[in-house]
Amino acid sequence: MPETITLFSEKQNCCGCGACADVCPRNAITMQEDDFGFRYPAIDTEKCVSCRLCQRACFFQNKEVTNEPVKTFAAALQNDSILRRSASGGAFAALALKCIESGGIVIGAAFDKELKVKHIAISSKDKLPLLQGSKYVQSDTSEIFKKTKQLLLSGKKVLFSGTPCQVAGLYGYLGKKYDHLVTVDLICHGVPNQRMFGDYIRSLGRVKRFSFRDKSIGWGINGSAIIEKNGTDKKMILWGNESPYLYYFSHGEIYRDSCYSCKYACSHRPADITVGDFWGIEKQHPEYLKAGGFNTDRGLSCAVANTLKGLDALNNCKDIMDICNSDFAKAAAGNTQLRKPSSFSGTRMELLSIYSEYGWSAVEEHFNKNIGFRRYSSRLKSMMPKKLKTFLKRIK
Ligand SMILES: Cc1cc2nc3c(=O)[nH]c(=O)nc-3n(C[C@H](O)[C@H](O)[C@H](O)COP(=O)(O)OP(=O)(O)OC[C@H]3O[C@@H](n4cnc5c(N)ncnc54)[C@H](O)[C@@H]3O)c2cc1C
Fold first, then answer.
1. What is the average per-residue pLDDT within 235-242?
2. What is the distance in A from the centroid of ligand 1 to the CA of 272?
């Protein structure tokens, strides 16, 4: 009788990357939803032969990241129409374009037709919009580590992007470094799950397209949805603090357990490059915002090279992306998740219990009862003149 394998003892020890399921030679591990919709690996003991490959592939529990920031930049893609589709300053798109130009494959998170988020691989520039833009939900990575390995073994250059725990998951799965693999991790608040996101969008109507970050209303966490009603498509703006999903996401109340003790919310990042928003640029680098400099309405990236390979890849983008020197402390000053994991208030467990017992509509009721006038703050902020906004941000 093979020995029973325990993959994790407490939920906070499993980041849900799925490397254990992908690596299992017997397909004995499947990812299954808990009561709240978060996915965890479950072993079919009939199929398991206790080879322990799954445990060895778990980077999150077994390995430490030793990378230190090599160089930090503020950056923005020069091409305006590509930049508009990116959540921040398009640093990811610049790296992806360079990879595709050199015959490589880019891997990242995309919406499918049912608006589920899944990691996919692309090899042409016309597919880049699929990967652009943040999707604030845990992406499904099943099979993608296997696919990445096949591509690397065939000699293809690969740019792999994802949350830090997904990048760590890839390294755990691969078990060794490849010179022709470049990785990008996102500065990450934490991830809600797809069941909750699906319930939320269904509550909006027949959603055909969804954007978590719509730049037509500025650089911030305001989204939009294209909704079909009586045969016509209508755009609905989703102000960050008026949408219960976006509100509870940005206030840290609906992430999976492991996000609140994330090992990568610090300067030791698993990927070659870390990208995020350069929040706080007004205070940290007012000199870069002077006439002719960066335009914050279009979004701005913070890009950290964590390895020399990452630095080379960023330097290689200089002809398509404006890059200015910064330093890690300045980037981290406005971005908590470069210093520590997210925390939650007492509301999280209450919200998750309400959700699992009564469904999404009860979460909305809770939101409507408790948030009050705070909900209008995103809309009001967007109406402020830019100069006043910049002034307030600088003195904040
Ligand atoms: C769940 C989540 C939380 C985040 N929290 C923060 C934060 O606290 N602070 C901050 O500065 N930035 C955060 N970001 C990152 C930020 O929103 C942008 O994604 C990042 O700055 C890249 O922007 P870009 O303009 O370079 O490229 P974009 O074109 O916007 O790049 C999209 C990139 O994001 C990846 N991606 C999108 N959605 C997912 C997903 N669900 N799972 C894995 N990868 C995904 C794509 O693969 C691609 O690499 C978060 C992103 C996500 C997905």
1. 94
2. 15
Residues with Cβ within 8 Å of residue 290, at least 6 apart in sequence:
none
Report the residue among 141, 170, 185, 186 best suited for mutation to probe ligand 1: largest number of ligand atoms under 8 A from its CB.
186
DSSP single-letter state for residue 140: B
Does 193 contact ligand 1 (Cβ within 6 A)? Answer: no
Q: Is the pTM of this model over 0.85?
A: yes
Percent residues over pLDDT 70 in the chain: 99
Tokens of 200: 């939320």
Q: Give the tens place of pLDDT for each residue, 330-380.
A: 999 999 999 999 998 879 999 999 999 999 999 999 999 998 878 878 888
| Protein residue whose Cα sits closest to atom 22 of ligand 1 | 276
Give the pLDDT of residue 396. 64
Give me the architecture of the 11-62 domain, per CATH.
2-Layer Sandwich (3.30)
Look at residues 114, 137, 365, 122 and name the one whose alpha carbon lies nearest to residue 255. Answer: 137
How is residue 395 written in tokens?
């003195």
Distance CA 174, CA 148 (A): 9
Tell me the backbone φ, ψ of residue 43, rounded to 5 degrees. -100, 130
Report how far apart, in Å, the C-alpha atoms of 236 and of each of 228, 246, 275 are: 10, 14, 28
Nearest 10 degrees: Cα torsion 382, 387, 391, 393: 30
Contact call for residues 213 and 192 (beta carbons, < 8 A): no
Of ligand 1's listed atoms, the one at least distance from the Cα of 163 is: 43
What token pair was written down for 357? 């017992």
In short, whether 95's Cβ falls inside 6 Å of ligand 1 is no
Q: How far is the CA of 59 from the centre of ligand 1 (A)?
A: 21
- Cα of 90 vs centre of ligand 1, distance in Å, is 10
Residue 299 · residue 94 · CB < 8 Å: no
Cα distances (Å, whole numbers) of residue 42 to 5, 50, 72, 157, 180: 10, 14, 40, 33, 33
Domain-wise residue ranges, the chain: 11-62, 71-107+117-126+144-191+262-336, 194-252+341-395
d(CA 345, CA 343): 7
Dist CA 68 CA 249 (whole Å): 28
What pLDDT digit, counting tens, does each position of 94-122 carry?
999 999 999 999 999 999 999 999 999 99
d(CA 115, CA 203): 14
DSSP class of 39: E
